[in-house]
């Protein structure tokens, strides 16, 4: 499983405004959809809703942007159609957290036993004495 992302085949909700401008069509709005993954600290499943703002210009064929912008710098209309997939994919990927957490103060896993710190008692410990000093633990201090 990937750390976090939009599940394959998931439906995204698009609330977009397409506005004709002198050089093309300006697409702006919000994309929402499901987000699933696992916590980067404790590996618990995460389920959330993604909400991303998008704004992208798609140039008309033959507009001045042909001379002023590289082909990969701006979207282009193709036969009066707009391919939104690359724009939406880029917008979603850029807002995904690099280290998702199930909750902001997740403590993760105990490095010794692998238990969830949130579920372990407050006095949980794996302190082990140094075996070279084990013989000294049998001695008791006496006051004179």
Explain this structure to me?
- It is a single chain.
- With 144 residues, the protein is mainly beta.
- The protein has a domain at 4-95.
- It has two helices and five strands, in the order E-E-E-E-H-E-H.
- It has helices at 65-68, 85-95; strands at 4-5, 13-21, 24-38, 45-59, 75-76.
- Strands 1, 2, 3, 4 and 5 form a five-stranded mixed sheet that branches.
- The radius of gyration is 27 Å and the shape is rod-shaped.
Kindly list the characteristics that best describe this protein.
DUF177 domain-containing protein; mainly beta; YceD
Q: Could you give the topology of this structure?
A:
Layout lengths: L3 E2 L7 E9 L2 E15 L6 E15 L5 H4 L6 E2 L8 H11 L49
Parallel strand pairs: 4-5
Antiparallel strand pairs: 1-3, 2-3, 3-4
Organism: Pilimelia columellifera subsp. columellifera
InterPro entries: YceD
Protein name: DUF177 domain-containing protein
Rounded average pLDDT: 84
Rounded Rg: 27 Å
Secondary-structure element string:
EEEEHEH
| Fraction in helix | 10-25%
Please mark out the parts with pLDDT under 50 across 5 or more consecutive residues, or reply none. none
Shape verdict: rod-shaped
Number of strands: 5
Distance between the termini: 65 Å
Helix count, DSSP H or I runs of 4 or more residues: 2
Which class best fits the helix and strand makeup?
Answer: mainly beta
Strand content: 25-35%
Largest sheet, in brief, is: 5 strands, mixed
């Amino acid at each position: 499983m990937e750390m976090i992302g939009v599940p394959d085949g998931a439906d995204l909700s698009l609330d977009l405004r397409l506005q004709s401008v002198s050089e093309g069509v300006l697409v702006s709005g919000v994309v929402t959809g499901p987000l699933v993954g696992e916590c980067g600290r404790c590996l618990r499943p995460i389920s959330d809703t993604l909400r991303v703002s998008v704004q992208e210009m798609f140039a008309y064929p033959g507009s001045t942007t042909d001379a002023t912008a590289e082909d990969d710098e701006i979207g282009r209309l193709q036969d009066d159609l707009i391919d939104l997939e690359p724009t939406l994919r880029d917008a979603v990927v850029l807002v995904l957290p690099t280290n998702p957490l199930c909750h902001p103060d997740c403590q993760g896993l105990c490095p010794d036993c692998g238990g969830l710190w949130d579920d372990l008692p407050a006095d949980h410990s794996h302190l082990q004495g140094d075996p070279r000093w084990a013989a000294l633990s049998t001695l008791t201090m006496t006051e004179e």
